[in-house]
Amino acid sequence: MKYTEFIDSVPDSRLDICRAVFIANREKIKIKKEKTILKNLEKIFDATLKIGIEKGFQAMTMRDLSSGAGLSMGGLYSYFSSKDEILRASLSEGRKIVWQILDEFIQGETAPIAKLEIALEVHLFLTEKLHKWFYFSYMEAKNLNPEDRKNAVQSELYTEKLIEGILIDGQKTGVFRQTNHKLAASVIKAMLQDWYLKRGKYSRRNITVDQYAHFIIGFIRPFYLKS
Amino acid sequence: MKYTEFIDSVPDSRLDICRAVFIANREKIKIKKEKTILKNLEKIFDATLKIGIEKGFQAMTMRDLSSGAGLSMGGLYSYFSSKDEILRASLSEGRKIVWQILDEFIQGETAPIAKLEIALEVHLFLTEKLHKWFYFSYMEAKNLNPEDRKNAVQSELYTEKLIEGILIDGQKTGVFRQTNHKLAASVIKAMLQDWYLKRGKYSRRNITVDQYAHFIIGFIRPFYLKS
DNA sequence: GTCTATACACAGATAGAC
DNA sequence: GTCTATCTGTGTATAGAC
């Protein structure tokens, strides 16, 4: 699959995230009109990601955010009751959308080799599409309260479990080698994460996500494939 | 090489870092006695890493740091003129020590396979020994001023260049395959970084740095070796 | 629904006693 | 050399006008 094909086949996840936040916080938000809420939530989240990535969430002041999002301070606080609440909402609702899309794509496949490659591709494509969100989530998870933080860590492990499962299945059906699947999944995960953690570096070198996906798949193949 | 052997053969880098900071900032520091300075610098840096990793450098207040280091606010400010200065000093002087040790160990080797494996091992061992420092550097580099930040990024690329160089040499002498060495170095770097970025996860799974090093080397070998 | 003006707490930094 | 006490700016959050 190519990135452009992927993009064409998934709905606008940014809007989905806003809608999910709206539904999850319907009672807390003081505004009534759905259309107004969605419009402003999008502005707030866009600005949060932009400024939060530049200088870190802690260093971003509510005044920064208010001018970045084009709302007054008072306006902001009719959507979220505190700065921490903005962080929590930004991270938690996004996650659900992400796993939903990932699941959808790999469900069809059963052959281990194809399944592994699809999982890697879709993960990279998702992180490309939502790269600001992934980077921000990674860097700011430590600023969540303990409970939400625990959820974030759990979710981090989801990709790893997914890859590990595919490796185990592949070994059972005899196409993959016997290896330390848990460790293998960890380092494969690390390679996937590098794409969004060092997005700037790869941009500067003109590496596209398609090239990176192709390279990663080729890189790990000689390791897990029976030779 | 084993981690314990490595530890025995390098001097106490934490003290070296304090000494380097002392020398680099001799004029700015208002205290005269070297012994006092070294003792307090160590307390300050230890507390900075501890608290900075827990809640992030921005969220750490000077009051947090002062109580963590066992000095008064006034006392702190006779060592550093500002909070940013503490960050700058923590990151910049450490880097030099790190590259110095890495260079020392790989200089002797010329055979590409051995050289690559030593480089990976020593890098992992160094990040194990100074894992708080590495984690902190990675997470807080974005809070440096533009110039120091540029240095931090450059230094990040050093490992990558080193690995790339070994891969190129290995190909020239005919033991390594022809690959995209730049990309290969990037993803190998990502695997090395995972060790200190996810230190807690590997601890919980009882993976030692020796096991991780062994696994990584085995993981990438089938990729770069001519078969 | 959105704004302006402001309360109040707490941050970084310093002066000057000991 | 180290401390306590304090200044001043800025941050989050809210009240109430429009």
3D structure, described in words:
Two copies of one chain form a homodimer. Chain A has 227 residues and is mostly helical. Helix content of chain A is 76%, strand content 0%. In chain A, α7 packs antiparallel against α12 and α10 (181-197) runs antiparallel to α12. The first copy, chain A, binds a DNA duplex (18 and 18 nucleotides) through residues 30-33, 36, 61-63, 71-75, 77-78, 81-83.
In terms of DSSP E residues, the strand content of chain A is under 5%
The total of helices of chain A stands at 12
CATH topology call of chain A: Tetracycline Repressor, domain 2
Q: Distance N terminus to C terminus of chain A?
A: 25 Å
Coarse morphology of chain A: elongated
Give the name of the CATH architecture of chain A: Orthogonal Bundle
Structural class of chain A: mainly alpha
Number of E strands of chain A: 0
Oligomer: homodimer
Describe the main β-sheet of chain A briefly: none
CATH level 1 class label of chain A: Mainly Alpha
CATH superfamily of chain A: Tetracycline Repressor, domain 2
Q: Helix amount of chain A, in percent?
A: over 70%
The rounded Rg of chain A comes to 19 Å
Uncertain segments of chain A: none
Helix and strand pattern of chain A: HHHHHHHHHHHH
Total of domains of chain A: 1
Residue-averaged pLDDT of chain A: 95
Largest interface: A-B, 31 and 31 residues
